[in-house]
Please model this.
Amino acid sequence: MTSETAEPALTVDELAARAGVTVRTVRFYGTKGLLPPPVIGPRRVGHYGAGHLARLALIEELRRQGLTLAAIERYLDRLPPGLDAHDLAVHRAVVASWAPDAVETVTREELRRRAGRTLGEEDVDRLVAMGVVEAQTGEPDGADAYRVDPGLLRLGVRLLDVPLSPESIRAARTVLLDHARGAAHELSRLLREEMPERDAQAVRSLSAHMQPLVVQALLTAFQRSLTEELREWLGEPPTNDDSPDGSI
Model:
């Protein structure tokens, strides 16, 4: 795992610019303990790494979802220790998916700009297989257009370098969706038993409080279970650090 202060490269001004926030915001999160301190370099200048940027993006996403500062602090405190920038990006993508209106329609050029890299036909096919983008037809100007989930695009682009075929990605997505629906059904059943009166406001309020906890629990359990499966497949013995973060 890469720590949040590894390979420091950004000044506080650069970090703020990359994250789309003010320097004052970065320092405020630091004083509240939400953002780890920078690595102090020559001339006492603080430098930040990829982990800081990913954590700051997660904090901002939680804030956009309406969580209070105290709720954000509780969310971060429940994260497994030792998460690197990729793990934090996964959590941010999951949090971003809470928004019901996350999907946007963009042109091919805008898709490339947001991806931050050139996208070939195979790359787009893989993003479609992941469910990150959906090709649209019949645009009046004849240009390619795509429905995009911005919260998942950054993660999807990183997964383009994983050597899996679109067919395997589709199969994996089907497995995950089936199990997710099963888990959602069982949790819904528990809610119905807990609140038989079906008070709409009370149900939504309880769901809003439970959702961050459920997402974290599912993500952490999946990471740990996948680690155990892979180690068993590779014939590797379990290690003492399997429990803290479930990462490979």
